[in-house]
Design brief:
Helix content: under 10%
Structural class: mainly beta
Radius of gyration: 18 Å
Number of strands: 10
Distance between the termini: 81 Å
Length: about 180
């Protein structure tokens, strides 16, 4: 066995970088959990500038993070994970946040650039949490800063923001 193989595998499985570092919607403790990637097939090039492809019913779990996709590509540059691309009809992600609420996201494509910490959700994306929802055709989210842009391409975007303190339902009509 190539003595560098375990290090390369560890680097590939830094797929945790997909959504974990600095991501406002992730549970911080998930980053310290083991990651499991199940798929029908994988094809990996363990060189410093290689690509690992997972195909067919891809399921990625790490702590509370659970991802389902038709395919996942992990692209390496200089021995480090540079980009992770998930696709499917639809790729789905769910994760518990630090406040113990849940976030669910789905899109035809999820493209995460590890260096810039920017994720692009495209193709009928929808992100839901107790804080609100955002849906449209394309969202660019900077996981480092929390900045989010969507729309601007001629398509409509729908954002619903839940009130911070939900008032109890009224107990009848006042006359």
């Amino acid at each position: 066995m190539n003595p560098m193989l375990p290090a390369k595998l560890a680097s590939i499985t830094l797929l945790a970088a997909l959504l974990a570092p600095g991501l406002a919607w992730s549970k911080a403790s998930d980053r310290n959990q083991p990651m499991t990637i199940d798929s029908n097939h994988n094809d990996c090039d363990f060189s410093d500038n290689g690509k690992c492809q997972f195909r067919g019913d891809v399921v990625i779990t790490q702590g509370s993070l659970e991802i389902h996709a038709d395919s996942a590509d992990v692209i390496q540059r200089g021995g480090e994970t540079e980009r992770v691309i998930l696709s499917g009809k639809q790729a789905r992600l769910k994760q518990q946040m630090d406040d113990n609420t849940w976030m669910n996201a789905r899109a035809d494509n999820m493209d995460y650039n590890v260096n810039s910490e920017v994720i692009i959700l495209s193709g009928n994306y929808n992100v839901e949490s107790e804080r609100g929802t955002n849906a449209g055709q394309r969202m660019v989210y900077n996981t480092r800063t929390g900045a989010m842009q969507s729309g601007g391409d001629g398509t409509r975007v729908r954002t619903v923001i839940q009130p911070k303190n939900k008032a109890p339902a009224a107990s009848g009509d006042k006359k």
